[in-house]
Amino acid sequence: MDFSLTQEQERIRQWVRTFAQSRVAPLAAGIDERDELPRHLLAEMGELGLLGLPIPEAWGGVGADFLSYILAVEELSYASAAVGLVVAVHTAVGSFPILYFGTPVQQQRYLPRLASGTWLAAFALSEPEAGSDAAALRTRAQRSGAGYVLNGSKVFVTNGSFADLFCVFAVTDARRGSRGISAFLVERGTPGLQLGPSLRKMGMNGSGTCALVLEDVYVPEEQRLGEEGEGFPIAMRLLDGGRVGIAAQALGIARAAFDAAHAYTRTRKQFGQEIFQFQGVQFMLADMATQIEAARWLVYRAALLRQAGKPCTREAAMAKLFASDTAMRVTTDAVQLLGGYGYAKDYPVERYMRDAKVTQIYEGTNQIQRIVISRHLTR
């Protein structure tokens, strides 16, 4: 398989890399410290098309392919994992649901706003009792006139603190199990929709993670996404692409940590020489570089399969599993290579390590990824 990038993909990668290093990287430490993403940065990304990169031009997007979008997430995450996450969630599980499953009216209403960054999107699936067991939802959507009344709560809603549109999953027929779950588009400001405070987290600060409470939230039938009972299959299909995005994010974090550690070992001197000259240090860097390279091709291969419309559930799980485990190993080793400085906030590698951890958890924990992969081995 040829993994060479096309001229257009390479152009997009260089364009996003330049923007990320000049506009995002200088803000990364402040975003983490204040747990706040500057609105002017979101507006700038929207104006440039970064929030609608894979959305067709007909809906106001750039019309780039899926791999180009994955490259963009990787480059943004290299500069700031939180910014990469915001873009990945907004796109893969915020805009894609409407692009792939929305009605023409829904597409016309929302996609231009999302592609331009005028609105931001979030995905509300997880609940206090429904994390890895996503089918065990307790949020209910009861028929009422020409629509539904939603009651329940959601947790770990990335982008939730500043999102304008939420893709909310709720049970419409409890007797049917996962086939009784439906998806709804709920706008910010809808009566009864309450946003919790931003969750204080170990890392990924600035991504606006919060809880949602729905108390008698009325949603017209035309705001239902897909047919009644199609919510769970929609969520599962979205997660394949979402997992490739998280894998790309992990890849960007790992690259940033490696580059920081490598540069440090060429300037730090002990016993009269650069610490890079010690074989033990070289072996650590060699392992880090090898793991990153292996992760890169798993991620790109999954993206190409997804782009071609081919089944990629197994490959997406493999990419997410390996890339996130790699990010955790590489960032931990980067902290070790910097010694005491690696543990201090004066250097970014401690932030990389904190940010890397959650890539092993969200979009399906790595234990769930192993279950997904093993199921495909028995087919």
Structure description:
There is one protein chain. With 379 residues, this protein is α+β, with helices and mostly antiparallel strands. The protein folds into 3 domains: 7-119, Acyl-CoA dehydrogenase/oxidase, N-terminal domain (Butyryl-Coa Dehydrogenase, subunit A, domain 1); 122-228, Beta Barrel (Butyryl-CoA Dehydrogenase, subunit A, domain 2); 232-377, Butyryl-CoA Dehydrogenase, subunit A, domain 3 (Up-down Bundle), CATH 1.20.140. The protein is built from 10 helices and 10 strands. Strands 1-4-5-8 form a 4-stranded mixed beta sheet, with helices on one face. The protein has a 4-stranded antiparallel beta sheet with strand order 2-3-7-6, with no helix packed on it. Helix 3 (66-79) crosses helix 6. The longest helix is centred in the middle third of the chain and has 37 residues, at 231-267. The two termini are 24 Å apart. The model has no long low-confidence stretch (mean pLDDT 95).
